[in-house]
Every structure is written in structure tokens, then in C-alpha cells.
Amino acid sequence: MKKISIYINLLIVPFVFFSCGVEEIKDPRLEVAIISPRVNPTTARSIVLKDQKFVYEARVKGGESSSYKWLVDDEQIATTLRSDSISYDTEGFRKARFEAANNSYEGSAEVLLYVVERAASFEDLPLAENSFWAGVDNAGTVSTFTSGNIPFSNTSPKDTIDYLEFGYSNITDSTNVNYANYGVFQLIASRNNYGIARTPESGKLKMMFDGEYSPMSIEVANNPLVVQTARGDFDIYEEDDTTIVSFANGDFYNLEIRGLLDDTTTTETVISSPLVSKSSNILTVQNSWLNQELITLGLVKGLEFTINTSKVDSTGVITYPTRFNIDNLILLNDGGEIINEINN
User: Fold this and answer.
1) Are strands 164-169 and 282-285 parallel, antiparallel or unpaired?
2) Global pTM?
3) Whether the domain at 8-116 and the domain at 119-343 fall into the same CATH topology
4) CATH superfamily of 119-343
5) Per-residue pLDDT, 260
6) What's the superkingdom here (predicted)?
7) How far apart are CA 201 and CA 318, in angstroms?
């Protein structure tokens, strides 16, 4: 996963009375936070890979060290801020809880920990700073790369044709010469490696798994070239910029994700991410990473990514760049256990 610290806090602030006959509370307030494993602050969930070594670690302010306690699935594993190094060799979920107290207060922080075998963060792929990978050569060669035990297909560039399917990048600097094609559009640069994707003109891109899995979640983001073209910053087809292809009112550019039940059959459920749209002369752009839950797709053999846009010609061919970015794709080999826990 990404190298940032996200905290789940339980902040307990004492009420202080100064009226006659009431003693002022002198004990410090109590703050409790889980800092490892890294926690999604919205869902209070955390992901670790199977067999990945880590420690449970908390941060406390105003607590008595004798009260510190780590419990996992109601079993006490430590009485300190940090546990011993630990790893899990089976997939599944675990409820981790840290407790602390002082003379006046008790506090705790909880996280639902998912142990998974397949989680693509792209951080395990070697990449120089401000660079990208879009294929093994410039000859249109088909190959596969793997991140977090999830395989991704790639067709390398050839002649004037850019890569197809998936690659990866860490470009966030808008002044980088490769930013438009291989960067990620976000107001605040806050990402290391991430996945890049380019579909054929049909806008459809299939990703087949090596078995049946339950997709849990994915993060998606805009490609800069798509945003720049929608704004009319430059025209991708005419060097003299005489043809205007920027967005008009009613135009849209969405990314849809469906599960693949086999090579051709998709789920009825679709997860849609609006990336760019224009209405009432206002251009709305997704300018940060968007986390999408995929739980409702169920057990599938792959994913189908579809660019649904108003920018098509009379034959249905997309006339815009067919690019987007992905990160933190998580697949569960759960047999329904984790899915049922989440849905309940």
C-alpha cells in the first residue's frame, strides 16, 4: 500500500468545572490513535498482504502505560504501544482493538483488518523518479506484469501507436514532458507509483483474473490529457488548434466497471465513476483519487473497464483520449466469508 500514515482517533476531552464545591479535573485528556497497520479513515479498515510482516502500533497522549492493551479477535496480544512483528498465513478478517486509560478516562481505537493475497498498489514495481513504464519495447509486444500478486496485461507501443491496456507511473509533476499521457490529474500530488490504463477506441478494456475472486475496492483518477482536452487547453487532432474539441454543455466522460462472469458475459451491476462533465457552462473534473467499493460485483473471473462518454463519432468510436488511472485494486479469495461480514 502507499507510504502515508492515516490515523483513526478517539479523542476524549474532559469537562472542566469551576463552580464552588466542584473540584477541577486535573488528569490530562486522553488521545488514542492506531498508526500501524495503515487505516482508511472513512471505513476504519486496513489491508495487509498474506505473509506480510508488520507490527500493531498505537499512539497515545495522556494515558498510563500500565493500561495499554492490544486485542485481536478478543485475544490479548500485547500490553505495549507496539506488538511483536506478526504476519498471517491465511486470508480473512480480524478485528484489532487498542485500549488505554488514565485516572479519569478510558479510550480505544478499532480497525477491521483484512488479510489478502492480492492487492495491487504498484509500489512493488521498480521505477525511477518521475518516470513511467508502458511496455517491454517499442514493437507492439504483448506481455504481463504483476503487482501484489495481480497480473496486468500490456501491449507495448509501436510506431505512432501508444501502448494499450495497463502500465504504471509515478509522474505527478505537471511540468514533466510525459505528464499529459502518463501522469495523474490531481490538485495535490500525493501518490507514489500507480497504474495507468489505455483502452482501444471502443473504450472497453478487459482484465481477466487467474481464478474467481471477489473484488473489494479500487481507486480511480483522471488522466491529464483527458482533462486538458475537455478544457480546450489544446487540440489532440490538429496541430494548428483550429478544431475545437473541448467539452460543451451536456458532455461527459465516465469510467464504468463491471465484473466478468466469463470472457463475454458481464455482471448487471455496474460501478460508475464520473470523471469529467459539463453543465450550465461549468466544467466538473474529478481532481483526486476516487475510492470505489466493488463488493456488489460478487464473485467474478475478471473486470471490464468501459469509458462511457458523449465524445463519439457517428459510428460510436470514441474521439477523445481513452485513458484513466487506477490504484489499490484489492481482490478477495474469500469463498463469501469476508463479503458476508462486510454486507452484514
Assistant:
1) unpaired
2) 0.77
3) no
4) Protein of unknown function DUF4465 (2.60.120.1350)
5) 97
6) Bacteria
7) 5
Q: Check: CB of residue 258 under 8 Å from CB of residue 306.
A: yes
Q: Which residues is 120 bridged to in the sheet?
A: 329
For the segment 299-327, what is each residue's pLDDT rounded down to a tens digit?
A: 999 999 999 999 998 888 998 999 999 99
Q: How far is CA 12 from CA 23, 44, 62, 108, 152, in A?
A: 19, 18, 10, 10, 46
Domains of the chain: which residue ranges? Answer: 8-116, 119-343
Assigned C-alpha cell, 97: 482493538
Q: What is the largest CA-CA distance in the chain?
A: 86
The DSSP letter of residue 249 is T
User: Which has the closest alpha carbon to 255: 326, 316, 200, 181?
Assistant: 326
Class of domain 8-116: mainly beta
pLDDT tens digits, 45-83:
888 888 889 999 999 999 999 999 999 999 999 999 999
What's CA 195's distance to the chain center, in Å?
Answer: 10
How far from the centroid of its chain's Cα atoms is residue 293's Cα?
Answer: 10
Q: Which residue in this structure is represented by grid cell 488511472?
A: 325
The count of residues in the chain is 344
